[in-house]
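Final report, closing paragraph on structural work. Over the funding period we assembled a curated collection of sequence-structure pairs, and we close with a single example.
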Amino acid sequence: MKVSVVVPVYNPGENIEDCIDSILRQSLARAEMEAIFVDDGSTDGTGERLDRLAEEHPDLVRLIHIPNSGWPGRPRNLGVDAARGEYVLFVDNDDFIGDEALERLYATAARTGADVVQGKVVGRGKKVPLELFRRNVDDASLGRDPLLALLAPHKLFRRAFLLEHDLRFPEGRRRLEDHVMVVQAYFHARRIAVLSDYPVYYWVRRDDGRNASDARLGRSYFDDLREVLDIVEANTEPGPLRDRMLRHWYRVKMIQRLGGPTFLGRSRAEQRELYDDVRALAAERFSRSVTDGVTANLRVRAALMEAARLDGLVALADWESELRVELVTGPPRWEGGTLRIPLDGTLSRKDRVPIAFPRVDGRLRYALPPRLPGAEAIGVAGDVTDELADASMRVTIRARDTQEEYLLPVRARTELRETVRGVCVHVVGEAILDPETAGAGRPLRAAVWDVLVGVSCCGNTARRRVDAHREHTPPPALVGSPARIVIPYRTKAERLAVDVDQAATRLLAVATPDPDGARATVAGNALELAFDVPVEVHGEAVPVNGGELVLTGSVTEGRRRVTAPARLVPDGDRARLEGRVPFGRQAAPDLVSPGSWSIGGSVGDARPARLRLAVDVGEDGAASVRRGRRPPVTLPASRDVASLTRTYRVRRALRSFGPLRRTIRRIRWVRNRLLGRPQQRKPGQRLR
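Its predicted structure, as stored:
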């Protein structure tokens, strides 16, 4: 057996259904996997739900019931003891995994010989360190790669490796139990691999208060942190590696907690307790070689902490909570199959005025709120003269449906612009989106992707979605081989989004064929149509098949609809839509006969869209394409012209009223769902 999935379970309620479904959908063969659910004394009916699951899937699911232990450590350990797989993957009961997660994780482990494989994690309401998943890494190391940025246990471990080194989770109710186990595993592992090009694990923050990590910190938390620090010191020599590792916990688990929205949301008593605990541990365990290496915003916090100015920490956190990104987007353009997006970003506050760093005695100082309590104690910790040039821009692309996110390459430079208030820091650059490699080296999958930008300066970071350029939206493009349709477009909120093979029906609405570039010819029993489409072509010229042409006309016996296959054919640096429609001089079903026909079309598997073009076919077989109008109405026998005209005018008036149009569409959608009718647009194809 290849993989055992170990799931500790305690009162997840309905949240466990996502986890169960994702395990049942795995592409790995049933005979090569197992799921071990360890019920830690659930009282919400989950135990009975798992009993039924084990009965329904005896070849896959194993179930262990234990009295409540208070924390997931003991259930995970029992799962490892019971596992029969070569590898073990830990999954929490309120999270879920990608459909190919086990297959891809095992393939990576088998190919690299890794003891630990960290699969790409997608945050649903939780922050995930994207830098860790910039690319696939076959042999990651603590000294080179940001492995410490994600110490959650949701990784693939070779079971024999765990047993060989007696790597187990601390049991009982305690915090950071995953850090204790994972850090030791990192020190013992012969090889660690990172799988970045497939979303393996979906880490979900629930709003029902059941996430264990949401619990308030107490003094015992920092006792548990001391144990993690002991492990680091026991496995490293004094020097840069130890300092860098210790600095991770000093930064993330201590000084960062003395700021931000979570700190502001605590009561004054809780703020005081946290402040006292952090201050005591900082003085006890962290030397200057560790603490001086953090960014300016954290050095300022540390200075206020050492000066016993809790009031200053609260005021600083309130000021920093209003930081925003002020962004200017240049006109995007296609260049060699990549979309180039010019950006100019700086940090500002809610008033949209860029943050300015004042000059004091010839040195640049950290920007502070006016009349900050304890500002006099900051001293050299607030000197940012040598740090401003390190400001950076990070651009990501995020799937609208799954929230998976990938970093994009950015060519950027820092500009220090003098103002009367001080120096403003702008990061000016160009993001490069290559649909063939943007998914951590792999092609982006079919989805609608939003583009986001983050600007960091002196440790402060803010991010937002990229605005669409006000005057220019790049045309759709055919990219790669086989060709895929990529459509940059402007959302209703004036943001830039990129549609990759997801709503190809939108292509012919964005890139409307011009009647002047259309050709229609009757050849034998077929009407041949070709339309020039303003689509850029990058890469090998391979036609996109699977589309459809739809001709609708009014004839004596009523409206007739004729369909025929179509394809999008690259032609130099542009493309054309072409197809052959059956033709007959006598009216017959499934044949185009002499007359006027409106034209619809689609590309790939999309639903046909009306092209606002029409073709006129004469009795002599001559054909021409013109700009189309609404097809003529065919009257039902039971309706007179006046009645139909009134109805048509009322409907047209109602449809011109935007809010009412949206309401009508929603009512129709609900009606179709209730009646079991097919929807006119797939959920994944909707453009917002």
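The two ends are 45 Å apart (CA to CA). Confidence is low (pLDDT under 50) at residues 630-641, 680-688. We thank the funder for supporting this effort.
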